[in-house]
Amino acid sequence: MTESNPELARFPLAGGGAVLVEVDGRAGVERAGRLPRVLLEAKTGFDGALAEVRDAAVAALAQFTTMTRPPEEIELKFGIKLDAEVGAVIARTGVQGQFEVKLKWRKDPAPLEEESVEEA
């Protein structure tokens, strides 16, 4: 039975420093025994990797905000997986990519009737 061997990837931050992220081991590579974790240097910065996913979220959001009757609330959920080779990707479940979208509309409030106020 082959287990996924997590590795660490260092993603540099735009403002300096870096963040370490646990990533899945490389496919097809098996380790014999208990070897120390491997530290990979990411090919893209953390900020840049997330910026690409952010742009995808903005594009998805634009599709719902430009509806004839846009929803009052939009909730967009998706998982992000960081990869040392390609940066950030939208995580998948099973064979499909995953986006969860929740749109809410409230019933139009009934128009208020004007009340007449008489002065005595």
UniProtKB/TrEMBL annotation:
It holds the Pfam family Trypco1. This is Trypsin-co-occurring domain-containing protein. It comes from the Bacteria. InterPro entries: Trypco1. Residues 11-107 form the Trypsin-co-occurring domain.
